[in-house]
Specification:
The complex is a heterodimer of chains A (282) and B (251). With 282 residues, chain A is an all-alpha fold. Chain A has helices at residues 3-37, 43-47, 60-91, 96-108, 113-127, 134-158, 162-170, 175-204, 207-210, 232-241, 248-279, and strands at residues 50-51, 56-57. Chain B is of the alpha/beta class and 251 residues long. Chain B is 37% helix and 27% strand. Chain B is built from ten helices and ten strands. Chain B has a six-stranded mixed β-sheet, with helices on both faces. In chain B, strands 2-1-4-5 form a four-stranded antiparallel β-sheet, with helices on one face.
């Protein structure tokens, strides 16, 4: 074997090993969570409200609460994020103002989630008088999700070949027709990926909902968007730290449900992506 | 031929930033002629072509002075949509959209408000026939356009441009990526279109300009050196630089 071939082998091994290393922690996390929650997961656990100081019963209100928060977050952040990204990429001229906006987007993603929580509390809960409510919590999570959605959408739009736009414009299409027919359809998979990524994060965050929506113990379902709800991550925090003598498997079971919920969202996005990819005729 | 100018440029100068790429171009393009534009790389041919339907302005650093008239109307008074509907362009490399053959051609009618399926279908068929592609694709209209060969793709682009109903078709080195047989087919299509369309052909291939065009202009470093009947320009050029270029002494 020549020296170049030996180096090639070594490089391949190192790269392959790095890839395997990525798979190990996720598999171990899942295995560990599943192993520790065995015996606690049951039909009752996911369909019943907690009882007896949260030591018994299930986590149904928290599951519903988290789903409602994710849907609410998506309703606010998806249109706002996608529309502003379209504006930034397709319409905005490159000047001081748009560079400032782009810089803000980048910096927004660097703000710690607890700061979003405080901000949401002062703006939505107190100033806009929404109270601790699903509405306030969704808005807070939506602001936190925006940077990822905007960045992902921007990148998805920018990766659509410039020639598509030129063809469309050269045929006399308007700017909006061009974006609508020749750019957006090819950016959808990228937009979906970014959206699900940021919604998954929103589903698992505790800090932003701490002051804006999450209820410590509320074993009934909300009646309107102005109600408080329980949410899985906050519930997990509460039962793990505030309830003495709670069986540890209940915490792990709650964690397992949260992970399962996020995986389910990812699954939906994978199916949607595959569907949109089929439409593209390369 | 009736010498009826459909496009007229007056003192057209074009700039990218502070770089001037075209210098005071004044010329007329007659109805239903094929005007060839030849010249070496960086002589401003493509910029001239794209100025006619305002595609240059997609580049934010672009600016121009002087006037362009289309049917005696200053194009500054014509909206982008109408101008580009009336003055279509074929790009250097065949650029098809990643959709079916049918939808590539139907895209233009769609954005111009043709929603009736039968009308659109008829327009697609007519356009493909005019571009000499119909017989090759009529049984596979729903296949991806990218599966066509390079030459077929370029004729598909011509069909797509024809489908919106232009008066003028601009060609930006349309055969630069094609083999001689595909090139011949594209040139055949251009010959047939002469009846109803005004065509402007920018090409690096001087022989192609000699074969296809009735009149020809020679651009060099942003200047229009000479323009005239193709036969005269190629047999008896007035300017020494034209002579040097077409006989291959430079460029």
């Amino acid at each position: 074997m020549t020296a170049a071939k030996v180096r090639e082998k070594i490089a391949f091994s190192v790269l392959g090993f790095a890839t395997v290393l990525i798979v190990v922690p996720i598999l171990m996390t899942i295995l560990y969570v599943v192993k520790n929650s065995i015996g606690a997961i049951s039909w009752e656990f996911i369909t019943q409200a907690p009882r007896n100081g949260m030591k018994e019963g299930g986590i149904f209100p928290a599951i519903v609460g988290t789903i409602l928060l994710v849907v609410g977050t998506m309703l606010f952040s998806l249109p706002l994020g996608v529309l502003s990204a379209i504006y930034l990429v397709e319409y905005a001229r490159d000047n001081f103002f748009t560079r400032l906006i782009k810089l803000s987007v980048v910096n927004l993603s660097g703000i710690p989630s607890i700061v979003y929580g405080l901000f949401g509390f002062t703006l939505f809960v107190v100033f806009l008088r929404l109270g601790t409510s699903i509405l306030a919590g969704s808005l807070t999570l939506a602001i936190m999700s925006l940077p990822v959605i905007i960045t992902a959408t921007k990148e998805a739009l920018e990766s659509v070949p410039a020639s598509f736009r030129e063809i469309s414009l050269s045929l006399g299409a308007t700017k909006w027709q061009t974006v609508r027919y020749c750019v957006l359809p090819y950016a959808v998979p990228g937009i979906l990926t970014g959206t699900v990524l940021s919604l998954s994060r929103a589903a698992g965050e505790t800090a932003p909902i701490l002051f804006t929506v999450a209820a410590f113990y509320l074993p009934r379902l909300p009646r309107s968007v102005f109600d408080q709800v329980m949410a899985l991550p906050y519930h997990l925090y509460v039962i793990s730290t505030q309830v003495p003598n709670l069986p540890i498997k209940l915490s792990f079971a709650t964690g397992f449900v949260l992970i399962a919920l996020v995986f389910l969202m990812n699954l939906v996005s994978i199916i949607l992506r595959a569907h949109f990819r089929k439409k593209k005729l390369w | 031929m009736v010498k009826d100018a459909i496009i007229r440029t007056v003192d057209l100068s074009c700039y990218y930033g502070s770089l001037q790429v075209l210098k005071n171009i004044s010329l007329e393009i007659y109805r239903n002629e094929i005007l060839g534009i030849i010249g070496p790389a960086n002589s401003g041919k493509t910029t001239f072509l794209r100025a006619l339907n305002r595609l240059n302005s997609l580049n934010t650093s672009y600016s121009q002075t002087g006037e362009i008239f289309f049917r005696s109307q200053n194009i500054n008074n014509i909206s982008d949509n109408i101008l580009r509907k009336k003055i279509g362009i074929i790009f250097a490399l065949p650029q098809v959209l990643p959709v079916s053959i049918y939808n590539n051609v139907a895209y233009g009618p769609k954005v111009h408000g043709i929603t009736n399926k039968n009308t659109a279908g008829q327009m697609v068929e007519d356009a493909l026939k005019k571009a000499y592609l119909w017989d090759e694709v009529k049984d596979r209209l729903n296949e991806p356009a990218v599966r066509l060969s390079g030459g077929q793709q370029q004729r598909l682009c011509i069909a797509r441009t024809l489908a919106v109903g232009p008066d003028v078709i601009l060609y930006d080195e349309p055969c630069s990526g094609l083999d001689p047989i595909s090139t011949a087919k594209v040139e055949d299509a251009m010959g047939q279109l002469k009846e109803n369309y005004t065509q402007i052909l920018v090409t690096n291939n001087t022989k192609q300009a000699a074969r296809v065009s009735q009149r020809c202009g020679f651009f060099l470093m942003g200047e229009l050196v000479e323009i005239g009947e193709t036969v005269a320009l190629f047999t008896n050029p007035k300017d020494k630089r034209t002579d040097d270029y077409i006989t291959g002494r430079f460029g």
